[in-house]
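Example with several molecule types.
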Amino acid sequence: MNSEQSEHNGERHGWRETLRVIIFEADTPLGKTFDLILMLAIIASVFAVAFETVESVAADYGRELRIVEWVFTILFTIEYVLRLISVRKPGEYARSFFGVVDLLSFLPTYLAAFIPGAQTLLVVRALRLIRVFRILKLARFVSEGGQLLLAVKNSLPKVSVFLVAVLTTVIIVGTIMYLVEGPENGFTSIPQSVYWAIVTMSTVGYGDLAPATPLGKTLASIVMIIGYGVLAVPTGIVTAEIGRADRTKKISTKACADCSLGGHDPDAEFCKRCGARL
Amino acid sequence: MNSEQSEHNGERHGWRETLRVIIFEADTPLGKTFDLILMLAIIASVFAVAFETVESVAADYGRELRIVEWVFTILFTIEYVLRLISVRKPGEYARSFFGVVDLLSFLPTYLAAFIPGAQTLLVVRALRLIRVFRILKLARFVSEGGQLLLAVKNSLPKVSVFLVAVLTTVIIVGTIMYLVEGPENGFTSIPQSVYWAIVTMSTVGYGDLAPATPLGKTLASIVMIIGYGVLAVPTGIVTAEIGRADRTKKISTKACADCSLGGHDPDAEFCKRCGARL
Amino acid sequence: MNSEQSEHNGERHGWRETLRVIIFEADTPLGKTFDLILMLAIIASVFAVAFETVESVAADYGRELRIVEWVFTILFTIEYVLRLISVRKPGEYARSFFGVVDLLSFLPTYLAAFIPGAQTLLVVRALRLIRVFRILKLARFVSEGGQLLLAVKNSLPKVSVFLVAVLTTVIIVGTIMYLVEGPENGFTSIPQSVYWAIVTMSTVGYGDLAPATPLGKTLASIVMIIGYGVLAVPTGIVTAEIGRADRTKKISTKACADCSLGGHDPDAEFCKRCGARL
Amino acid sequence: MNSEQSEHNGERHGWRETLRVIIFEADTPLGKTFDLILMLAIIASVFAVAFETVESVAADYGRELRIVEWVFTILFTIEYVLRLISVRKPGEYARSFFGVVDLLSFLPTYLAAFIPGAQTLLVVRALRLIRVFRILKLARFVSEGGQLLLAVKNSLPKVSVFLVAVLTTVIIVGTIMYLVEGPENGFTSIPQSVYWAIVTMSTVGYGDLAPATPLGKTLASIVMIIGYGVLAVPTGIVTAEIGRADRTKKISTKACADCSLGGHDPDAEFCKRCGARL
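Resulting structure tokens for the full complex:
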């Protein structure tokens, strides 16, 4: 779906191609409009599914919500059929992640007519929200989102090394706490204690599990103070990456022909050292 | 209210203009004094309203607090009238955000004489605290506050991309947790579960809702460890911006004599646009 | 007590001066030893006072702890007297912060003989722990501690601007939550609600107060997501300062005599551009 | 076990040496395979030990888990014996940290035949997870892990200065809170209050202990707001270090032909030590 390919096929000018550009691309005004309307429909349908689970809302507006559900189901069914018709390789789309999510976003409503309870599967619709990132492809967010993604991607090797260290730590800490606190204080098993260690080191601290013995509290204190410093590591990694992305973005690749000095500003037209035209 | 305009009108020299400068500007000694006294009055009135809601304080000092309330109400009424008189466009001020807040900061006390309970609206006074940022316009905080604001402003596009990602994540995570934990463990609805996801990913972790099933705890652990890394992203963005603001501050103050371009590197000897010696 | 002054007086060579150097300075071997022993005594005495408040420990080792207390009391009394004798201006020392803390670290034990319960004042001893920072004056921590302190100090103006913004936010948020949740959900007064807002925005999240109404939970969610981004600001400020301190530390102040290029490495002996000896 | 030594001994070519290279080194294909299999066995055995402590799992799969335990015990025994045979200095290995951990990872199963309950010591196996960092020695993680470790190591002096400050603060804060809140609100002793201060300043906030008096809540609010800024310091330190490691990576690879000094700036044209053209 890169731009060169779409230019090539742009000559076909069939209604299918026009439909495909509207539905799958976000470069044309119609494509943008379609994406925005789809996004709003997805958000509205997610809200409808979400609020149907709230008992008081379901009691008062149950009928209205069921109508809304059927409207969205029919809309998404039409959208799915149009996608299948317009796309160049329908089989590939149907088997792709988004193809399956699109199918599952309306299928449960039909199934619920035969199988009671199948409706709860509608929550899969929430996964359609991932499409929101397509909107990020629009104009002004491209460079910001791209930079962020690049920084996060570059951070991954370092962050994964860090996660291995954290996982090893929480298992060891959890095991020690299981021995120290024991089942009588809520640390009923090692997995439970590891869960406590994760809740503590991530500074979430629900308080559903908390050390009760003096030794346990001392150990927990050490874990918290260490967790404090540990929290700094991923932040440092990501910050350094974003800072680097910032810096590299802003330097011109042009070098002076006279003195061959590089590292000019992107808007420089003359060498800052010798004054020669770049 | 920019400096050029105020210079122009400075010739009017009427008592209204003098009043306006005192009340609305913070550049003259009298203006600074007025701003400081107003700030202290706002803080004191907010404290009075706040502590009146504390039952034990209201029982012991109820009468004193009511006197204080009337004193501030009368003071703020006078201030509001003076603002209306001195400002150049009273209608515009009255409809502006601060105009409405100023009005609402004393009106409820009068209304309470007729409508019981109207007094609780006095908490609107807290909004007057936003005026504290006017004090930041004073001398030494100008550059610090300005830099911070600029850094936060520059971070907004990236941070908003990030917030979209976080919101999508908490909805999907909340939906999954609703299916896994179910109403019997407190996850009574999808909005409730999304609330839990936000409480967890922001590492607040009240503990009013916590996973009870092994699968729920495993999922929660994954969410927390991811949330750990996720916390790093906004920090990285803001830090990079502040760092950049710091660096750009060190830009040369020299401007080109020929084309008057500024913002040269500190080590530049020739203008980067026209090549003239700096 | 700066070095020039102590050099001057170094000629006195009296036993008082020797004592003063040992007790108040940390540059001589004896001074270092004294500081270390004092530090250990303070830590031990703090532990003794702290553990005396633990009921089970007090029941089992009450007598031993009382002996330890008297030993430390006598030691600290002797130390105080020696400080008074050796210092150049005893009155000034006695009225200084550390002078008062030193006095209060042993006085309560004597007072307890006449006034029952005066002993609890011994916890003032914990304040003597601040002396631990004197040890930081020793050798290898000087530059690290100095850099950190400088970075924190440079961050103060920006961080205080930020704190004003946070305080204004928590008061406004707390006031709104008081109106939304009300006393029936634990938000009994505005100060109580402001306390909740601080607990939430700092991501501590005890859970002693948590929103119960749907609207309250929605507002709390917004506060948490904002708090998430807000947490990034002080980190960004301090990080930028530490990074700046790092950078400025490492550049030589020497400039090339031939081409006057600055910004050389501290170990550079020749100009990196023209090769002239620096 | 440095590379020079292993080259030397590479001439021995005995089966013992081959075994040693497989078991202790990770450079050969066989060595890598051994390390990976061992890692998986350790993870599996840790999971087995962990899930045996879960009551419901133990009730259903108790027999299977006991078989798995014996299989791993025998495997780890064989591994231990092979390590003892192949290593050059068996005594040194047996007394080393990993030697003791390796021994304790199977010994308790045998002991449990004679001493009931000795089996709980099997949790020591979790410590074997530390071996996971050996895998980090493999190919692509070397530089990432090395950089992270270097950054963390370089941060240690500054972070330890910071930790001394935090520890002093939590002791003083804890002591004050003990006096303010007292045993009737759960602050039963000073160590307990210090534990609360650590839980609060690290933003974990279990909620098992929370201030109940207005003064206590005010103090706690101040501690939280300070803790907010304090959290920024270790992050700033680590970030600055990682950023520095990043920057120094960009140093020129050119070395001076005359004095062979490396580490020049990328834009250096002359050696900064001897002035020779690079």
